[in-house]
Amino acid sequence: MSENRAVYPIALMCRVLGVSPSGFYAWAQRPASERAEMDALLVAEIRSAHAASKGTYGAPRVHAELADAGIRVGRKRIARLMRTAGLAGVSRRKAIRTTMRDGGRQAPDLVERNFVADRPNQLWVADITYIPTWAGFLYLAVVLDAFSRRIVGWSMATTLAAQVVLDALNMALWHRRPNGVIHHSDQGSQYTSISFGNRCREAGVRPSMGSVGDAYDNAMCESFFATLECELLDRRRFRTQAEARIAVFEFIEGFYNPRRRHSAIGYLSPIEYERRVFDPDARQPAIVLAAVKTKPAAALNRAGLDRRCARRRHVRAGRDEKMLSAEPKDGSQEEDNMPSRAIP
Fold it and tell me: How crowded is residue 214: how many other Cβ atoms within 10 Å of its Cβ?
């Protein structure tokens, strides 16, 4: 009715809807409830977390972001407020099957689709993808640590020569200094080249390769490329290759490694996950939000949002030794100091 009061008279709408005009005006002048005020505060925090993720986070990652900031609230409530505010995360496109070819395996499959690592520098996965620009394709090679999902090495080039994977491997070796790490990839010509094999032998890297034409054999790296495509490439168009290089650099080093949350590692970023594994005391206790009374701005410093409902919690009498004494509403002040009787 409030949205159509400029088109139809209030009395006419009340008569059609079966409500009284006095009831409508009383509703219009009534202040917002505590729940509505708290929802408004939460929407502001949700918008901030969604904007910080470059508009990519859905309800689960926004929930983890708020929890890390000390705001405890249910994930379903966040999902409802995001739908009301018109906020949504980005989704991935349907995968496309690559062409299959015959041939012998250049290196054994040491992973067998078991992308589990107990420590850093135990298993690396690598692959190449392309980035479309108006000036032509730009190729990106990455090396990902399976322990924390961190991109430890990456390189970009305008051609698919073996040097692009060598540069990514050298960057990973320079950053991590591994000892006997498994390097898993597909059977692309860059990874089966003589120069790449020689570099692996020099650095003590154990090469591993999956089968041909099967993306599941390198699913972890394909998952990163799907994230890159969904959260960056599908949302932008690059005029030049230099513009694409800057955008990919900002995504990997400015967002993905230090800030992007992963459900597989407890909704932590790769760098934060490694930091907490090696320093368990680094995690700080969360702060509980408060229910809004008269000043919504002070609600972030009080407790109350983690309650299951807005009702006042019912306090039951204890059964161990004593009962909680009940006092009349208008009782005398002397009864306040009287001790409760013990249960016989």
Answer: 14
Structure tokens at 292: 């809004």
| Residues 144 and 151: beta-carbon distance below 8 Å | yes
Smallest CA-to-CA distance from 129 within 224, 14, 43, 210 is with 224
Question: For 133-167, how does the pLDDT look when each residue is reduced to its tens digit (9 = 90+)?
Answer: 999 999 999 999 999 999 999 999 999 999 999 99
Neighbours of 153 (CB within 10 A): 22
| Nearest residue to 57 (alpha-carbon basis) of 267, 290, 337, 328 | 267
Going from the C-alpha of 310 to that of each of 33, 34, 178, 239, 314, the distances in angstroms are 11, 9, 53, 52, 12
Task: Kindly provide the residue ranges of all beta strands, DSSP E only, lying in 74-167, ordered along the sequence.
Answer: 123-131, 138-145, 150-157
Burial class (CB within 10 angstroms; exposed 0-12, middle 13-18, buried 19+) of 21? middle
Residue range 234-286, pLDDT digits in tens:
999 999 999 999 999 999 999 999 999 999 999 999 999 999 888 766 555 44
pTM over 0.70: no
140: left (phi over 0), alpha (psi -120 to 50) or beta: beta
Amino acid making up residue 309:
C
* CA distances (Å), origin 43, targets 57, 185, 271, 334: 14, 43, 28, 48
Tell me the C-alpha distance between 17 and 205, whole Å.
Answer: 75
The one-letter amino acid code at 153 reads G
Rounded to whole angstroms, the Cα distance separating 96 from 192 reads: 24
How many CA atoms within 13 Å lie on the side-chain side of 157? 16
Q: By the 8 A CB rule, do 181 and 117 touch?
A: no
**CB-based contact 293:313 (threshold 8 Å):** no
Q: Which tokens go with 245?
A: 């290089």
